[in-house]
Structures are given as structure tokens and as C-alpha cells.
Amino acid sequence: DADAMLEAAIEAGADDVVSTEDGHEIYCAADSLAEVARALEARFGEPRKTALIWKAQTTVNVDDEAGEKLVRLMENLEEHDDVQNVYANFEVSEALAEKLGA
């Protein structure tokens, strides 16, 4: 469960844990990824995925017009065969997120 994962991850040296119904995302410094992954694997079994990702430290709020363009750009990049990962540091309004999610 989320509490057990949070406790184990913090003990292993992680900085943050985000738990959802789909699973857990554990955030740690790049230089401690292997150590944290080994500790959690020993306790919970093999993970679905272990990888370094880019997580924005600072985000930028964008208006709805720019947000729509950026979301379209992100979607187009994700669909391209040569693109492996797409990251961004912008935030859109909840209204726009709901509109685009529908």
C-alpha cells in the first residue's frame, strides 16, 4: 500500500513518493537511483520500470491559448517514432485540462 511504499522508499534514500491506483513513482537523486531501486526490489519484488526521468523544479503557468498549442506539440512529439521521452515544465488551467481531456 501507499504507506508501506512511502516508508520503505524514505528508508532507502528516496526524496518523494507519489502513489496512485496505477502504482508508485519514487523520486530520488540520480546518484542514488541504483541503491534505492535495489532496496525496494529486495522488499517488494521487481519493479515494472526503473529509469531516470527529468522532473521540473520550477513550472510556468501558461494561458489557455499557449496551453493548447503546447499540449498539441507535446502530443505530436510523443507520437513521433524517433522520440523516446517528452518532458515539459508548463502548467495549464484546470478548465483547459478538462477541455483537452474530454
Structural notes for this entry:
With 102 residues, the chain is α+β, with helices and mostly antiparallel strands. 46% of the residues lie in helices and 14% in strands. Helix 1 packs across helix 2 (33-44). The longest helix has 16 residues, at 64-79. 8% of the residues are buried.
H-E string:
HEEHEHEH
What percentage of residues falls in helices of 4 or more residues? Answer: 40-55%
Uncertain stretches of 5 or more adjacent residues: none
* Beta strand %: 5-15%
Averaging pLDDT over every residue, what do you get?
93
User: Whole-number radius of gyration?
Assistant: 17 Å
What is the straight-line distance between the termini?
30 Å
**Largest sheet: spatial strand order:** 1-2
**Number of DSSP strand runs:** 4
* Outline type: elongated
List the helices and strands and how they pair.
Blueprint: H1 2-12, E1 16-20, E2 23-27, H2 33-44, E3 60-61, H3 64-79, E4 90-91, H4 94-101
Parallel strand pairs: 3-4
Antiparallel strand pairs: 1-2
Helix pairs in contact: 1-2
